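Worked example 4.2. Below are the chains of a multi-component assembly; read each line carefully before continuing.
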Amino acid sequence: MASTIRAQRLMNAKTEIDKSKTLISKIAALRELLAVPDVGRIYQRYAQKKIVECRAEAVAAANDELLRRLDLLQERLVSHVESEKARLERKHKRESGGGLETSRKPAAKTSPVFAEPKEDLMDLWKTMLEEKT
Amino acid sequence: MTPRETELARLYDAVAGKHWIADGQMMLFVCLTGANPKDAGMLVYEPWDDIGRKIPESYKSNAMALYKIGGSELNQFASQRLCAAIEVFLSTVMSEPELAAFKEKTPMKYPFQKFKSILEELEYANEK
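Applying the procedure described above to all two chains together yields the following structure tokens:
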């Protein structure tokens, strides 16, 4: 129930941002969006995009007050991102702690090297193919 | 479960199982990296973006090995879905004749077939 209400609040705030034509109303709607607890990744990215857009407009209008408000929003967004990161790390730790010996660990964010394939996986596939033949 | 069974279960889960991934190339990337399909959402944001949402060419030999496994070990739907994704990837890193030669050399257990009607398809499935 709580998650439905949260999703609804996020959606309403997003609609408000998309609808609003003035910079000040856009910032007010952004504040509503970031006031929701546990903003997910998708909304975080959306908010970041909008903050950057608003900042460009505020700089063009040379409005210091709006720039200050945008700074506060940016801080709020960063705290959302950090809490999300901490939540995911806790989840990884929980999931990698237990399980069978043969089960794979989840693709952790802490292992950023994906540009090169994993040797052990290829070895496993080769063994599988050899077993078959 | 043996490592072989675990691996096949992981592949099936990513391709046609509970945690199946809709985007073909994303699904292939999860299969190739050995990631848990349940956590594919993590890959979507960071590493998948980092590599430009395109599987690197270094995965070519792995993809070819996976084609052999997928084409022979998985069931009809999963094998066709996985092999189709691999063919798309290989077509970007191989020339057309090379790909055709590779496909000829490694035949699939359930090759792609076009049926005139659903009855014909059911008949084919029953025969299998």
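Take a moment to check your reading of the output against the notes. DSSP finds eight helices and no strands in chain B. The mean pLDDT of chain B is 84.
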